[in-house]
Amino acid sequence: MSEAQHRPWRGILVATALPLRADLSVDHDRYAEHCAWLVANGCDGVVPNGSLGEYQVLTPEERARVVETAVAAVGGERVMPGVAAYGSAEARRWAEQAGEAGCAAVMLLPPNAYRADERSVLAHYAEVAKAGLPVVAYNNPIDTKVDLVPELLARLHGEGLVQAVKEFSGDVRRAYRIAELAPELDLLIGADDVLLELAVAGAKGWVAGYPNAFPRASAELYRAAVAGDLTTALPLYRQLHPLLRWDSKVEFVQAIKLSMDVVGRYGGPVRPPRVPLLPEQEAAVRAATEKAVAAGLA
């Protein structure tokens, strides 16, 4: 069994933006084409129904079909859906759906309807682990107000409940603590704008946003960074950073979709309660994207 099959979350997995038509219905054909395009341009797989995929505003039918569409486009080994939900039973059902669709792993936020304590975090991951698929934890204390600190991650991993963590805290110091407490837990870069720092610290993968618009340049950056080739990585990182930092802003979905439009892909609109970018935000994203295109990164 290859490393990718055994640990399918390694490498670059793009948290895919979801193309919506003008009437805000899901364009599944366009989504399938997007998943295939990402893999053809150097990415290792896709993460449907992440926060970038606007899963919170999809119907259950849409959410299930998005996973099935991705699997049909690139194969289940390359698809790691987000299975976050308010209730543990619902999250487990989404993990079971992922397994039925042929996926090899799932990504799970902690309980996020309220500020969960450690016991309820452990119970939540234990319930979803019953679905039988490897679980990648997603630590996003900025948005969820539940922090999977290194000690808690080590406990989740020690109990066999998670195999990796998408780290979005932005605190790169945690990489070293996690490696000390849980050496077998794979650290995945969770925020685009700390990619280089976490790659140097030993990350085994990147659950990525901006490759939706710049897959080839992003793949080159990631591979150079994890190989320790700073001569290649650092100039690319500096060039892309004005875009990568939008991945950590509130308007990340709108920004990435706009960049997709600018590079000639289809980004399209977002569903409410998200609203379009303000004119000055749009101008900033557009200018940074056009600069990257002019530099030959698209």
Task: Map the helices and strands.
Layout: H1 3-6, E1 11-15, H2 28-40, E2 45-47, H3 60-74, H4 88-101, E3 106-108, H5 118-129, E4 135-139, H6 141-144, H7 150-158, E5 164-167, H8 174-181, E6 186-189, H9 195-200, E7 205-208, H10 215-226, H11 230-244, H12 252-262, H13 279-294
Parallel strand pairs: 1-2, 1-7, 3-4, 4-5, 5-6, 6-7
Organism: Streptomyces cinerochromogenes
InterPro entries: Aldolase_TIM, DapA-like
Pfam families: DHDPS (PF00701)
Task: Tell me what you see in this structure.
- With 298 residues, the chain is an alpha/beta fold.
- It is built from 13 helices and 7 strands.
- The protein has a 7-stranded parallel β-sheet.
- β5 (164-167), α8 and β6 (186-189) form a beta-alpha-beta unit.
- It is globular and about 50 Å long.
- The two termini are 34 Å apart.
Q: What structural class do the secondary elements suggest?
A: alpha/beta
Give the number of helices.
13
Number of strands: 7
What's the rounded overall pLDDT mean?
97
Helix/strand order, N-terminal first: HEHEHHEHEHHEHEHEHHHH
Kindly estimate the percentage of residues that lie in beta strands according to DSSP. Answer: 5-15%
Shape: globular
- Seen as an oligomer or otherwise, the chain set is single chain
Helix content: 40-55%
Outline of the structure:
This is Dihydrodipicolinate synthase family protein. 47% of the residues lie in helices and 9% in strands.
